Amino acid sequence: MTADPQRTSVSEAVREVSASMRSRQILDAAARLMERAGSEAVSMQALAAEAGVSVGLIYRYFGGKDEVLLAVIVEVLDAFRTTVPAAVDAAGDDPVRRLAAAFTAYCQVIARYRHAAVLTYRESNALSIQGREKIKTLEVETSEPLRTAVRAGVDAGLLAAPNADLVAYDLLLLAHAWALKHWYFQQTMTLDEYADAQLALMLRALVRPEVRSDYADLLGDPPA
């Protein structure tokens, strides 16, 4: 009796979804636990208890604690790699609006993976040399949409920014600040309000005066 190909493919899809959910459950738990206690203080037993799974199940997906930490950080960078370009493409052709869309998308990813984002600052030194190099490479790659938008804005005569790399990393740090200082900012503003306010501060320094009125909504200026 031959297997039904359609049934087999459905079963494989179910298994993949289940594996993805389990992996997500473990990584979320690892991010929370390592933020509270630091990676050195976290054991696989503690991680299993936090995730509500067995230690054996964790080892089905990861070779050890170092792999878990790397996976937690890489997941944030992978989310940047998929989410940010999509937001930029949806913003149209205007470089300033593409820059705004990129920054907003970065903030949204940071908010979604807030605990993991904090780990990139606190625990990256605990990674192997190869792990740290991978993180550095991915960080440069995922910040490229910001640099590209800044360069395009300068070329179009819309932005005054002689150093696109510096602007890109300033914006990245502002996005990360939502995770690092969430305890404070959440008292007075939502994520959207935070992103809009930080973006307006940056764009007021970057947008050329002669085109400022075209971006009144982004700058927080009253309509003319």
From TrEMBL:
Residues 20-80 form the HTH tetR-type domain. Pfam families: TetR_C_24, TetR_N. Residues 43-62 bind DNA. PROSITE patterns: HTH_TETR_1, HTH_TETR_2. GO terms for molecular function: DNA-binding transcription factor activity; transcription cis-regulatory region binding. This is AcrR family transcriptional regulator. Keywords: DNA-binding, Transcription, Transcription regulation. PANTHER family: HTH-TYPE TRANSCRIPTIONAL REGULATOR ACRR, HTH-TYPE TRANSCRIPTIONAL REGULATOR RUTR.
